[in-house]
Every structure is written in C-alpha cells, then in structure tokens.
Write a structure and sequence with these properties.
Three copies of one chain form a homotrimer. The first copy, chain A, is an alpha+beta fold. In chain A, 21% of the residues lie in helices and 33% in strands. Chain A has helices at 149-157, 162-165, 172-176, 202-208, 278-308, 325-341, and strands at residues 9-14, 24-28, 31-37, 43-47, 61-63, 66-68, 75-76, 82-84, 103-106, 109-113, 136-145, 179-184, 187-197, 215-224, 228-237, 246-258, 261-271. A seven-stranded antiparallel β-sheet of chain A has the order 11-17-16-15-14-13-12. A four-stranded antiparallel β-sheet of chain A has the order 5-6-7-8, with no helix packed on it. The longest helix of chain A has 31 residues, at 278-308. Chain A is globular and about 80 Å long. Chain A starts with 8 loop residues before the first strand and ends with a helix. Chains in contact: A-B, A-C, B-C. The interface between A and B is medium-sized, with 25 and 28 residues.
C-alpha cells in the first residue's frame, strides 16, 4: 500500500495522447482511468470501470462526446453521468455513474486531480515557463518504470549519481563539484556547479558552444510536490556569467501508476528566440537522452524496487548522505502534505 | 476465495478428450484432477496428486487400467485405492489412496461430481435433448477463459450485449427487441424475439433460409444451475409460426477452474432429420462462432475480471438493469444452493 | 516461509564462477548476496543491497578489491564496511555497512555461512575426498530448480525412483533390488545393491567394463545436513568384491535460494590414478547426466512443488514408504538442528 497525495494535480498524459478519436486507459494512483476528448475538444477523465458489469470503458468507443461501454452500450458523459441506457424502457438507475476527475490542459499536458474535486483549482498547476509552446520548441517523451515515483524523484533531484550511472557526461570537474540544495518554501532546489572543466566530453563542448578552454557547466533542478521537476543544464566559457551561457531546460514529471510503478513524462525545450534550428535540436536531445533514461537510470530504479519489494523505503532505514539532502527534503514535504490530508 | 456449489455435476471434459491411452490433468474447483479410461473404457477421475510425494499422477502412465505415479510407481485403481507398491515388501499403507470422484458420461461429455459422493446421482445430470448423437449432428469445442464462471453465465444469459459486442449479428430490429426472462422452478429462461427484421445480415438470411422479406428471429436461452445453458437461435419468414422456422441449438457449459478462471465447453448441433449436409453445417458453425467467443466475448470477460480482481462481484454493488434480470435470478438460485450446502 | 538451518555451510557457487573481474549476484536463503574476489583472490560475499538506496551492489563494479555501488559509488570492502564516499566531505556514516558473510573455498566450491559468524568454522565444511582436484578429475555443473531443496534431497537419497523416472538405467535386477538405509551419527546412508543383473543396459556394461555375463552394480548415497550428498555408482562382474569394481563418485549439493527454489550444484569425478583418459570421461559423464537431471528429475520436483504450493510438506501428511526411510531420517536431523538453533 502506498499513501498518495490526493489533492494535487498529476500529469495523466501528454495532450497529444488524448484525442476525440480514441479512448486511452491508464491507471493512476491505483485507479483505472479512461481519457478522451468530447466534441468540443475538452478532455474528459472517468473511472475506467462501468458501474454495471465493471468492464473497462476504455475498451468501448466515443459516441457524441460520450464514452459508450463496450459490453452493453451504457453511455457516460463528461460529468460521469449515464446519459443513455439502450435497453428496455431506457430508464437510468440512480447509481449509474462513474467518477469524473477534474482535468486541465497546460504545458502540452493533461493534468488530473484525483482528490476532492471541490479543491481542484487549475491555477495551482505548477508553472513551467519553458513548457509554453509559444516561446519554446518542445519535444516530449514518456516511459513506464517499474519503481515507486519517489525513487524517480530521488533520481532526478540527486545530481551526484551522474559520474556513476552516466559516465559519458562525466569528467574530473564533475566529480570535484559539490551538490548543494536550497529549500524554497514548499519547493526544493538541487544544484551542482561544475566549474573550470578542462576535459569535458566533446559533445558537451558542442552543446554549450565552447569549443576550447575551460568550461563552466551546471545542473540546477527545481522540485515541486509531489513529483514535478524542472532541470536546467547550462554551460558557458569558464569565468563568464551563467547568464551569458546556453541553458537547456527540461521537464521531468512523475505520476504514480501503482505503489511500485510510475508514468514518467519528460520534455526537452529550447527557446524559439535562439532560432528555428532549435526545433530540430530538441528532437535530437530527446532522442539522445532516451538511452541514458532507459538503459542507465531505469534499470537501477527497477532493481532498487525489487530489493525494496513491498516494504516502505524509509522504514528500511536507508543511510543518508549529504547528497540526499534535496531528496529527503522533498520526501519530508510530500509526507507532511499527505499527513495534512488524512486529518 | 470462491464458494462453489459442490453437490452438482460439472463437465470435466468432452468424452473424446479422455482415453485409455493418455492421462488428462485438469484443475476443477481449485482441485487438481486426473482423468482417464480404464480397461473397460470407464472414465476414472482421481485427485491429481499422489499421497506419497504429491507428484501429479497425470505425469505418470496408465497400467492395467490403473494410474501409475510418475515418481515411484505407486498404482491407483479407479476407486482411488493404491493397489501396487513396487518397493520392498510391497505393503500398501492404509492412507495410500486418493479421492475418486464420481463421473458419468452423457451428452458426449464427462460429468464429474466434486461434492458428497453419496449424493451423486447421474439421473440429476441436466437433460439436453439436442446433445444426443443419435438424433443430432454435434460439433464441440472448448476454451479456457480467465474469468469467474458466473461472468460467463451472465454473458450467455444476457441477450442484450449482442449489438455492442457482436455487431455483425445486429440490425435495428435487434436493438428494438426487448429482452425478457422467466423463472421456471430452479431454472431461468432468457429470451429476445427480434421480429420483422427488414435488414438482417446476409449470412443470417442464409442460415434461416429466408432470402428476402422481413425475418422473425429469436434467441432463447435456458439456464440450469450452476452453469448449464441451452441456446436456441431461430429464424422464420416474418409472421409465420416459430415452429415452421429453422432453429440452431447450442450448448454453453461452464466449469470453474479457479475463482478467476473457467473451462468453457460449447457445442453446435443440428437435427439429423434435416439431412446429412447438416453434418458439415455444425462444423462450419462451430468454426464461425469461435471468432466471436474468443475475440469479442472473452476479452470483455477477462477485462471485467481484471477490474474485479479478488473482490466479490456482488459486494462491488453493480448497478442492475432490466436486462440483468435473468443473470441475477441465476446468481440468486446458485447462492441459495451454496448456502443450503453449508448448513 | 521456510525455516532454514542457518549455522551451516552452504555452497554459494563453484569457485570458477567467482572472479576478480565480475560481480556475481545470487539469492541464498532468501537473501540477496553479491560474490567476488578481492585483489588477493580472496572471495568476498556481501549483502547485495547498498544500505544507502538499496541498489544491488552486483550491478556495480570491483574497484581496488572493493565493490562499488552502481548508483552513487559508495565502496564496500570485504568486511562489508563502507571505505569510500565520493561525495561532499567524504564522511562515512556509521551505519554505512553491509553484512559480510563468512566464506571459504574447498572442493572447487565457494562455501558461505549465513548464520552467526562467530560460529563459522571452515573445518566443519563437509569432506568429500573425491572432490580434491589433486587426486581426481572433476567436472562440475549447476542448475536452478523451482522446488524446495528438501525435495531435492529426497530425490537423491531415494534410490527407488530410478526405474520410474530414469528407465534407461533400469533392468529387472534393478527392480528386484531392495533399498536400504543406515543412520550414521548425524549422517544417513541410502543404498541399493543390484546384484546379478543379466540384462543391464549396454552403456552400463561399458561404464563398468563388464562386457558380458551378470553384473553386480550398486548405488550408495551418503547424506550430510543440510543437503550434501556423495553418490557412489559402482559395478563389477557378478560375484567379485565391490572393491574390485569401478566406482563413479558424484557430488550432489543443494542450496536453498528461496522456500520454493534451489541452487543445484553437481559434480562427476574419476580418480586420476585410473589414467589420463578419465579427464575426458568426467566431461562425458556430466554431459550425459544433464539430460536425466533436467528432463526427468527437475520436472517431477517442480510439479511436486506446484502441488505443494506454499504449504509445509510434512503438514500435508505424506504417506511414508519404506523407501523413504533415508529421506525421512534426513528431514528429522535437519528439523532437529533447526529447532536447536531457535532456542
């Protein structure tokens, strides 16, 4: 069992995954959900289980902006109400309804609210300025990982694993660089400034356009509960101001599928102001980063989960290193929020 | 956990599946059973677990009408008694026996009684007049479905799912036709008379030999506890008496393997009186119906089961439509019988 | 759940499986263990779960005789102490350690002690004179079996299953021969002397170099707790002293992986004194015996386990034949030792 934070927005899907043409079934916080768009293009998210015989609605079809159960043709509208019973006198039983989850579209994603609907305020969806398509080229990806979502949060907030898990990004300057963190209200920053790198990998030089001489590069991650992260990867000729450098802005967002599996949504972005060739750069970036995610991070996280099994991570009393400060702060904030909900 | 009706006959296999040449292992009501024929051709059904080291007897062989354990050669006769210990002085321990389940052959099937053997009366095996090979051509099939057997009963008793799950059988006249039910003692009828069908599918016209003009067609299902159904699919030129029409008679029989899986036995039949070409018709029918069973019904039932998980179906408080009346009546009768057994 | 004997040596691997070049992860008594050799070639066995984030150390690498965690580069030495924290000030938390299991090398194998380390005395590793490479040609093999290790012990101690499970080794003389057993302190002998065999299989004649005339052959198994067996397969022209015959000496050693799975280590040996061609004979033997192990014994044992499920074997009240005497004696000794440990 896993206690999830309920009164918060989770990413259910990328916007382009949800259409008027097809139903998308996806388990979120252990609950089967079906997603689609109604005739007005508005996203609908309903419990993916007909209250009649419990067939998954996602096996059915979209009819007039409603979802029709594959088994007996009951239709449910966007509010979750049964609006059509094709049988007998067509009377609709009082209890013929499914939960309709509040949803909102923002930052190219569908956000879903699994908690008290009265508390669902789209204004509380986190802001990611670089996820605005007007100003940025954005390439998106997603992945299923067989590990608890907080192991994923640990992974991104923890900038110390680079030289061990992703050696191609490394250099002695990386290993020398300290990992620091800052708690900013209910958000957490994790930072690693790798300064005066004399021997960065060639492709890193290329990305930051510093063909020779020492390079200052940095990774700054900003976390918001429960599992939203912005990652800023920057570089500049050593000694210059960071502001003069090139910064790649990434989104890393995690949604619990179950206690031991996670929907991972990620995006690479570049400012349109930097020129139209950036449209291609973000596509290259997202392809280039798929390998490390899939072949280096995911295997570790899934192996951690196998070693943890059904136990509670903190109950197993992990030892805490200074590099865990950001991740531990994030866990503490999430736990506090979950406890506040249970009151 | 699933409470099964014990004192009743279940179909263990089609007769032709059980031979003198080979052992057949099959789990029934959660119990491993081995089936074979002795020298006289009589069917034997024993617990498929040697009392010595618990090896499955079905991995052994048939020797002189006995089953020989694959591991140490203990032999058990049709009554379940160990009759041969090839080791040492050959003494047979008192407890060296397995349960021998009452069996009977009828309607081309092997029927097994998992309850109190004293109560096993072959006369109580349900009667299916069209399953008599003397008068009918009969084609049989079977399938494993990962769903509780009562979901299968619901499926066949419920004649309202046709236009949603099996659209090729449908037409507006089908959708207009009401589903009715009758309770007849401890049996249940479910009926759908689809009258004046102006636009039946072509192959339906062919089956019922009504090449043009409106067609009256009907589906009548008769259920007996726990999971035996006869399905009568008839058709005739509209307005004529049903008796003048053509009727296809089908058997749909379900045996619980576990709480969440089912052995499905089905048969298509045609009267020999209708001519020798009917021998081929039943073969075509059974092949034609395999597709809808396997690709349309089974995926829904298995998806229902996944959504239900280990919970009790009724405890999940499904909403009840009028089309569920037959299925609900059947569930009520089965539950009453199970409760009567537990007293 | 399975109660294992803890204060005893188990075979963790064949010596050649564990090197200075690669980490070997293996679950033993439900505990993940990582095995490798340090710079001095000494074998190290540690819990295969970093105390920091619970990643498996076996996914990491060997650095200076230490194992480096794949995730954050913590290094643990052979005693299980963390000796290197590459992050921040490099301070090593007090609890940064893993269990180091006592190990010893003997008989071409790595022996591991999962119990109280203070009690681990390499002198208590069982003696197998024919497993000394100085005097014997030795061919080794291993196999994973999905069955409890005591089902494996039963299997080897039980010499009565030959004619049923391994018919190619059989003949009427085998079936006539009685199985006897002797309890020798805390060890058990199981014996089957098959005398005057007029019709042994041809390859058996060849093995024992008795091309014609009746053959005396025998199988003697010696068991030591918890699961170490020496099997002596001998043959000689009928009537001659056993001492004049040819004897093949085999090791059959079992290590519990979990309650329902086992690491099976086996070896075929021949005295070097019998000539250099014996080097090839042991290779042929081990290949020849792989088939019966894998295709005849393992399927039965795995099917037993499926029929037993999670239940306790003895709690299922198996019937006991005289041929089970050796196996039952072994179980009694193991149970007694386990009970002694729990006091």
């Amino acid at each position: 069992m896993c206690n999830y934070l309920k009164n918060t927005w989770y990413v259910a899907a990328w916007s382009e995954e949800v259409t008027e043409a097809a139903l998308l079934g996806r388990k979120i916080l252990d609950i089967p959900v079906v997603l689609y768009r109604d005739n007005a293009g508005e996203v609908v998210a309903l419990t993916d289980r007909c209250p009649h015989r419990f067939a998954p609605l996602s096996m059915g079809k979209i009819v007039n902006g409603c979802v029709e159960c594959p088994y007996h043709g009951l239709r449910f509208n966007g509010s979750g109400a049964c609006v059509h019973n094709p049988h007998g006198d067509g009377r609709i039983p009082d209890r013929a309804k499914v939960i309709s989850y509040p949803v909102a579209e923002k930052h190219l994603a569908i956000w879903i609210w699994m908690g008290d609907p009265a508390a669902a305020d789209p204004a509380s969806i986190p802001e990611f300025e670089f996820m605005e398509a007007e100003d940025y080229y954005i390439a998106t990806g997603s992945m299923q990982v067989e590990g608890n979502y907080m192991l994923e949060v640990d992974n991104i907030l923890d900038l110390s694993h680079i030289e061990f898990v992703h050696p191609i990004f490394s250099s002695p300057a990386v290993s020398r660089a300290e990992v620091t963190h800052e708690i900013d209200g209910e958000t957490v920053w994790s930072k690693r400034d790798m300064l005066g790198d004399d021997t960065p990998p060639d492709f890193i030089r290329e990305v930051f356009n510093v063909p020779e001489g020492p390079l200052d590069r940095w990774l700054h991650v900003h976390w918001q509960a429960p599992a939203y992260m912005a990652l800023y990867a920057g570089g500049v000729a050593a000694g210059k101001a960071f502001e003069e450098g090139i910064v790649s802005r990434q989104a890393h967002w995690f949604t619990p599928e179950t206690a031991t599996s996670t929907h991972y949504f990620y995006a690479m972005t570049e400012p349109k102001a930097n020129g139209p060739h950036m449209a291609e750069v973000v596509q290259q970036s997202i392809q280039a980063l798929y390998g490390p995610f899939k072949n280096e991070d995911a295997p570790i996280i899934e192996a951690q989960q196998r070693n943890i099994g059904d136990e509670d991570f903190m109950a197993m009393k992990p030892i805490i290193l200074n590099v865990d400060a950001a991740g531990m702060a994030a866990r503490k904030i999430v736990d506090k929020k979950i406890q506040a909900e249970s009151k």
